[in-house]
């Protein structure tokens, strides 16, 4: 099974897990570097930033959540978390820190490879699908080809999923979407934890709304999901 090409940093304190993940990712055509703890992961990232990080949450010393937080201070590299089945609070915390996706342990290595491929593919999507050079809603501007967005002329520090979500909202203004709709259309998941959408919407509001607690652009449609309400006329 061939997936997107790229370099993956796999971080887990369990040698068996690291080896299994490495073998499956390499079988998919990916280059893999491994790290046994959080400190080693940060050193490896600083020396040669990868295209994606697979990061275990529960590690001794510098845990995965702290590693994710530090990575987000310097990079928007995609992060896929590995969490235990009962660690919902850690999954939510990881998403709030900027992780793009997660896989719960015990996991199917094939599922992990597919999730990694999906995140990589979406991070590179504009290169394969040309569109408008720029989409604007008042002081909010998004450039799909560059995968960048600005607010009042200042670059927004968006993760890959946050960018995808904003691009989708801008392309479909004034239409209400359920969380399951957004999981399918933005994440490409037929099923999954809908709290993933909730957390990403909250993070996106914090970056594009002047008052995130009283959002103007991303409205909550009670009993349905979310709707993007332009502050002006969306132009492209």
TrEMBL record:
Keywords: DNA-binding, Phosphoprotein, Transcription, Transcription regulation, Two-component regulatory system. It holds the Pfam family Trans_reg_C. GO terms for molecular function: phosphorelay response regulator activity; transcription cis-regulatory region binding. GO terms for biological process: regulation of DNA-templated transcription. The modification 4-aspartylphosphate is found at residue 56. Residues 7-120 form the Response regulatory domain. Residues 130-230 bind DNA. The keyword Repeat does not apply. One of its GO terms (cellular component) is cytosol. It comes from the Bacteria. Residues 130-230 form the OmpR/PhoB-type domain. This is Response regulator transcription factor.
């Amino acid at each position: 099974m061939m997936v997107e090409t790229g370099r993956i940093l796999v971080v887990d304190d369990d040698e068996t897990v690291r080896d299994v993940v490495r073998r499956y990712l390499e079988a998919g055509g990916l280059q893999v570097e491994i790290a046994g703890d959080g400190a080693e992961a940060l050193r490896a990232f600083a020396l040669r930033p990868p295209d994606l990080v697979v990061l275990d949450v529960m590690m001794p010393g510098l845990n995965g959540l702290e590693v994710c937080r530090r990575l987000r201070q310097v990079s928007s590299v995609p992060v896929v978390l590995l969490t235990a089945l009962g660690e919902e609070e850690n999954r939510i915390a990881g998403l709030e820190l900027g992780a793009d996706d997660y896989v719960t342990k015990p996991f199917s290595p094939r599922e992990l490879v597919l999730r990694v491929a999906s995140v990589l593919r979406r991070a590179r999507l504009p290169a394969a699908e040309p569109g408008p050079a720029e989409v604007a809603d008042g002081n909010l501007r998004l450039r799909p080809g560059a995968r960048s967005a600005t607010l009042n002329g200042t670059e927004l520090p968006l993760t890959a999923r946050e960018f995808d979500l904003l691009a989708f909202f801008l392309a479909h203004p004034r239409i209400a979407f359920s969380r399951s709709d957004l999981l399918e259309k933005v994440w490409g998941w037929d099923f999954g934890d809908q709290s993933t959408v909730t957390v990403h919407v909250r993070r996106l509001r914090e970056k594009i709304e002047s008052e995130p607690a009283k959002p103007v652009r991303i409205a909550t449609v009670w009993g349905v999901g979310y709707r993007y309400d332009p502050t002006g006329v969306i132009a492209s």
